[in-house]
Amino acid sequence: MRILECDGKEPSDMTHTFTLAFLQGQELWIVLLVILVLFGGKKIPELMRGVGKGVGELQKGLDEGKRSVDYSAKSEPADSASKTDDDSK
């Protein structure tokens, strides 16, 4: 099955990745029922707590990376300006 984007180009490989976002209605209920049967009612809160902590750590890492990039972008012009002043002497 080929999936084309609106402009007619081939989509990236990420488009072909199937996730829970494609599940709707009855399919989602079946998946939830299977999860309930596999893990049981007592394990699901622990599982979700672990997922929540993982998402929180991911968000912290993304924020830290963004701050690092912003800091290096702000400090880079100052470094290059001081180098040009030294070169002109």
From TrEMBL:
Region (Disordered): 64-89
Compartments reported by the entry: Membrane
Extent of the signal sequence: none
Membrane topology designation: Single-pass membrane protein
UniProt keyword terms in alphabetical order: Membrane, Protein transport, Translocation, Transmembrane, Transmembrane helix, Transport
Segments crossing the lipid bilayer: 20-39
InterPro entries: TatA/B/E
GO cellular component term, pick one: membrane
Biological process per Gene Ontology, one example term: protein transport
PANTHER family with a match to the protein in the record: SEC-INDEPENDENT PROTEIN TRANSLOCASE PROTEIN TATA
UniProt-recorded name of the protein: Sec-independent protein translocase protein TatA
Provenance organism: Candidatus Nitrosymbiomonas proteolyticus
